[in-house]
Structures are given as C-alpha cells and as structure tokens.
Amino acid sequence: MFGSTEKRIQKALSALRIDDLATDLAGAGIAVEVKMAGKRALVTLVAGFPCAGLRDALVAAVKAAAVEAGAESAEVALQVRIQPHQAQQEIPSLDAVKNVIAVASGKGGVGKSTTAVNLALALAAEGARVGILDADVTGPSQQMMLGVPDGRRPQVKDQKFFVPVLAHGLQSMSMGYLADQVTAIVWRGPKLAGALTQLTMDTLWDELDYLVVDMPPGTGDIQLTLAQRIPVAGAVIVTTPQDVATMDARRGIEMFRKVDIAVLGVVENMAMHVCSNCGHVEHIFGSGGGERIARDYQSELLGSLPLDVRIREQADGGRPSVIAEPDGPLAQAYRRIARRLAARLAARPVAGKRAFPRVVQAAGEESPGAGSPGLYTPPRG
After folding, report:
1. Quick one: 95 exposed, middle or buried, by C-beta within 10 A (0-12, 13-18, 19+)?
2. What is the pLDDT of residue 371?
3. Is the pTM of this model over 0.70?
4. 224-276 tens-digit pLDDT
5. Rounded Cα–Cα distance for residues 174 and 141 (Å)
6. What secondary structure, in 3-state letters, does the chain show?
C-alpha cells in the first residue's frame, strides 16, 4: 500500500507545474524523492539551480500536491545542487567555473549589457556564486554598471593571473579595468581573440556556479573565439520586439546552433512602457517579437522587461536594478528570468568528467596588451 502511495505521489509531484518556472518539476531539473512515514509523505526535492526567491512557494505547492495525491500531510526538504553542464564538444573546462552562460544579441542598443549584469546579480540573489566577464573588449561597460571607479586595476598573482574585482558580490573581469574609459581600443580580430582568451583563462575565478559572459553584439571574431575556446553551457538571446531587432536575434540563435551551443531562451527587453502618471501600457517597439522567436526556434521566452527609465538610471549609477531596489518589481522580474534560465540549464545533460589542459595563446597570435598604450599588462618575471 505504502509503495503504491509513494509512486502515486512521486508521479504527481514530478508532473507538478510551477508557473514561475513555466514548466513542471521534471522539466526544471528538480529531482523528487518520496517516502511514507505512516500516512505522512516525506518529500525531498533536489533542485539543480538556485531558487531562494521561489523556496516558500515551491514547498507550499509540493505539500498541497502531495496531500491531493493521497498523503494526509507532507514534510518537504529542499536542497540545491548546482552541477556543471555539457558544453561544446572537446572544449577544455574552466578552472573553478561550473557553467558559462553567454548573454548575446544580434545587434547593439537592445539593453544586452544591462540585462547581463542584472541577471548575474539575480542569480547571486537566488543563492549562487556568480562571476561576470565583460567580453565586449572594444566597448566595455560592466565596470561602470557595477560602480567600479575608473582607474581601478585588478590585482595580479604570481606575475601572471588576474584576481577578479569584487563588486556587489560578483566576481568581475573587464577590459575596462585594464584601460581608461576614454581610451579607444582599436584592434584587429586576432588581438581581440587573444584579449578574450586572456581575460577568461588568466583570471583566478573562485569556485563559481555561473560565469555570465556579456558578449559584444553581432556574430564576429569574439563570438567565434568564445565558441572555439570557452566551454559555454548555454546562451541567452536579448532582443527588443521590433522586427529589425528580432531579425538580428535570429542570426544570433543560428550562430550558436552552428557552433553547438544550446540556447536557453530569449529575453525581450523594452517590451512595453507603462505611463508613470496614468498607468497606460503602450508597446512602443511593437509586441510579441520575443515570443515569436522562441516559438520558431523551439526555445522559451524567459521573460519580458519594460521600457523603464529606472533600469537605465540605476545601471548608469553603478547600482543595477537588482541591487538598487531588491524588493521592487524590476528586480523581481530579473530574478524570475534568472530562475527560469538556470532551470532550463539544470534540465540539460550534466558534463562528463573530463580532464583537459588549460587553453593557451595560439602560436602567432598577438598578446592582447602588446604595443597598446594605456593598457595594463601583468608584469612578467
């Protein structure tokens, strides 16, 4: 009898849909174990993603579903175990980094960098250890959004490795730390590739669950370097609703597909404007663009964000929305999107245990700091 009750509850819970995640527990990579103690169900949930903001609602939903499936009462224990997930084949794993998530867009001006930093902060707020890498070598902006003063340089260890700069609880690295804000970085493709490789591989990341990579717009040299040298567990595409932006977003998705990187979902930015005086909602840039892309590519619309002046002001002021107003609707929207993308990743195959050497600069490739006035190069012994 108990065995059949356990199985019935187990089946019901695995299929339990969680609206916040837009999927059921099984689809979110949440493992369920049920044991009966008399007529009381002892339920253990093991989530593969951080979910501090969802914990209470998730536990309550599971208790209710267990009772509906036949238990008189239920006790629920929720554990979080974030594992490294499968990246492109034959790409060496990064030391001390479980999962690399690329945040990309097909074109500039869609709010990709603002989205990237808020998603990184949201993952941290949900309970993960998170870093952010500014891969826009020629146009870095994360140092400003994180409120790091101009001229701040990362410490160097053993005359070779960068120590990430801590900001709002994130480990961060950016070319903006190695050059003044007004310095124009005018480099060709091989030098850009070398810079991204050095920033990624020569930074001493400290036991990260997620490294969020803020990509430059487009499908050029930096994107190709990322695909060839850095193990990316998944990508997020940021777009605005209008046709010209969604057209470029489709190119971004096609690029990731060609290099065997999973697209975890689409974030629609500037989806609507809510009048601060009367509350009227207006879709200034059109509507439904992100949802159409997700549907056409069998992906998921992770969430839509409003056109809100506070997002811009807070990022420009070095305190992005998740930090500036942690209990506000904007922060909660970013946290919901972060949970969904992390859940999508948790449902993907776990990485095999493979040992690879560190990726080093390719023969003939220019050092990223060579011959570039105003840039910082670690001293060599």
Report:
1. exposed
2. 33
3. yes
4. 888 888 999 999 999 888 777 778 788 888 888 888 899 999 999 887 777 77
5. 8
6. CHHHHHHHHHHHHHCCEECCCCEECCCCCEEEEEEEECCEEEEEEEECCCCHHHHHHHHHHHHHHHHHCCCCEEEEEEEECCCCECCCCCCCCCCCEEEEEEEECCCCCCCHHHHHHHHHHHHHHCCCCEEEEECCCCCCCHHHHCCCCCCCCCCEECCCEECCEEECCEEEEEHHHCCCCCCCCCCCHHHHHHHHHHHHHCECCCCEEEEEEECCCCCCHHHHHHHHHCCCCEEEEEECCCHHHHHHHHHHHHHHHHCCCCEEEEEECCCCEECCCCCCEECCCCCCHHHHHHHHCCCCEEEECCCCHHHHHHHHCCCCHHHHCCCCHHHHHHHHHHHHHHHHHHCCCECCCCCCCCCCCCCCCCCCCCCCCCCCCCCCC
Q: What is the mean pLDDT of the chain?
A: 85
Check pLDDT > 50 for residue 355. Answer: no
Phi, psi of 104 (to 5 degrees): -135, 165
**pLDDT score, position 185:** 62
* pLDDT value at residue 379: 40
Long-range contact list for 363-369, CB < 8 A, 24+ apart?
365/190, 365/191, 365/193, 365/194, 366/190, 366/191, 366/194, 367/194, 367/198, 368/137, 368/187, 368/191, 368/194, 368/195, 368/197, 368/198, 368/199, 369/178
Residue 138, pLDDT > 80, answer: no
Phi-psi region of 277 (alpha: psi -120 to 50; beta: other; left: phi over 0): alpha
Residue among 52, 7, 51, 9 at smallest CA distance from 29:
51
Using the predicted structure, report yes or no on whether residue 370 has a pLDDT greater than 50. Answer: no
Domains in the chain, please, with CATH?
Answer: 2-80 (3.30.300.130), 97-346 (3.40.50.300)
